[in-house]
Amino acid sequence: MEIADLIKPDNVVANLRASSKKQALQELARRAAAITGQPERAVFSVLMKRERLGTTGVGNGIAIPHGKLPNLDKLHGIFARLEHPIDFESIDDRPVDLIFLLLAPESSGADHLKALARVSRLLRDKGACEKLRGTDDSEALYALLVDTTASWAA
């Protein structure tokens, strides 16, 4: 599974404005509703339900909120670089500035886990994250995310 299978250029946000975790998730839910055709409230609800199980702030300024929704036809992703880092109750207590939202069909099973692993592998790479933090252009962010020749793509 490649990152390009999960996101499209229109699903990359260069300067997301949010002052809290809840506000960031609400804004991402709004955007996800537009690309998936799912109700915004349903998207937000599944994201908050997952956060109550444990934070998706995985450390090093990165969060990977995710969830499964009925009636989705495929995996959907949104990448956002926040305008200003926010508290995300991350496991390392560091504020988050890079968010990769992942939504999967309820029946996705292993595909959902493969996608999470792929996103996690990309965002664990410090060089990749430095490059992502170094630009505020959506097209450049998308190009960095889907660059399969980069060292973090393995």
Write down the overall mean pLDDT. Answer: 91
CATH-defined superfamily: Mannitol-specific EII, Chain A
Structural class, judged by helices and strands? alpha/beta
Write down the Rg. Answer: 14 Å
CATH architecture: 3-Layer(aba) Sandwich
Sheet having the most strands: 6 strands, mixed
C-alpha geometry: globular
State the domain count. 1
Question: Key features?
Answer:
alpha/beta; 154 residues; 5 helices; six-stranded mixed sheet; Mannitol-specific EII, Chain A
Describe this structure in words.
- The protein is of the alpha/beta class.
- The protein has one domain (3-146): Mannitol-specific EII, Chain A (3-Layer(aba) Sandwich).
- It contains five helices and six strands.
- The chain has helices at 21-36, 40-53, 110-124, 126-133, 138-146; strands spanning 12-16, 57-59, 62-63, 66-69, 76-86, 96-105.
- Strands 1, 2, 3, 4, 5 and 6 form a six-stranded mixed beta sheet that branches.
- Strand 2 and strand 3 form a beta hairpin.
- It is globular.
- The model has no long low-confidence stretch (mean pLDDT 91).
